[in-house]
Amino acid sequence: MTELEWLKQESGLTDDELKTYETILGDNKFKSMLKKVIDANASLTAAKAKAEGELEQFTTRYNSEFVPALRDVTQQAIDSDAKRAAAEAKLAKAKELGIVLGDEPVREAPRAPGSPDPNMVTRDDFGQFQNRQANTLMAMQDLNAEHFGLFNAPLGGTQELVNEVNRQHLLGNKGFTLKNAWEQKYNVATKRTEISAANQKKHDDEIRASALKEERERVGANPHMRRGQPSRYDRYKSTDAGTNAVKPWQSSHSSRERNTDWRNQALSKVREAQAA
């Protein structure tokens, strides 16, 4: 469909009227105007289709999601009102029968003359409270010192430790102390094991280094040097030998020279046998 055919269809103008417009505006301007009108109409048509699609999606979601949810909330509110009304009716009946007391304040029974007031703090109560606070402060100082020794940092978050002790006491664990809370929070047992292992390793390294130093001082740092041995003559006494005897450390290192006397004696015996 051309621009002229579209304008004739949309406007209802005759061919002569269209020719008149074309003559007045010119062929190019007339066709350009028609093209802009057609494009604008197409844009409006697309926007309309998009809006209708979104409206249809919203309507479908409203009917499938929102309406059932509103119905559920409304039904729950109705059920809650019914349960509350039933509970109020039962409470009113119980009050009527005397099973449940009304809203009147409960009055305390009169105390006997001279009996102690349970709400009064006595001197003994104050003394016990003072002792507990003093013990808590001393325990906290000890924990702070021990914590610094283990972690090399001051102890923080002490209020959390106190809260944990109070919670354990409410649960029935009356023997739970500040030290237990501290050990549990900072995993003190593992830290002590690590420090003990490190100290043992340091001690072993010091012993090993001391032994190595002593060995090097004794034999020297040369790995090829022979280690010294005890002397075989450390128990030698000069009085055990004759006056002309040669001391062991003064004897010759040559076995031939050391055996000279034996050879001479053997040679003399052979000569004596030949002469006989």
Q: What's this, in brief?
A:
The chain has 276 residues and is mostly helical.
Low-confidence stretches: none
Query: How would you state the average pLDDT, rounded?
Result: 78
Overall geometry comes to flat
Helix-strand makeup class: mainly alpha
Helix content: over 70%
Total helical elements = 9
How do the helices and strands follow one another from N- to C-terminus?
Answer: HHHHHHHHH
Radius of gyration: 58 Å
How many extended strands?
Answer: 0
Distance, first to last CA: 165 Å
In what range is the share of β-strand residues? Answer: under 5%
Largest sheet: none
Care to describe what's here?
This protein has nine helices and no strands. The longest helix is centred in the N-terminal third of the chain and has 71 residues, at 27-97. Helix 1 (3-11) crosses helix 3 (27-97), helix 2 (15-25) packs across helix 3 (27-97) and helix 5 crosses helix 6. The protein has 276 residues and is an all-alpha fold. The model has no long low-confidence stretch (mean pLDDT 78). Among the domains are: 3-93; 127-218, no CATH class. It is 70% helix and 0% strand.
Question: What distinguishing features does this structure have?
Answer:
276 residues; mainly alpha; 9 helices; flat
Topology diagram in text:
Layout (H helix, E strand, L loop, with lengths): L2 H9 L3 H11 L1 H71 L25 H29 L6 H13 L7 H9 L1 H32 L35 H4 L1 H16 L1
Helix pairs in contact: 1-3, 2-3, 5-6
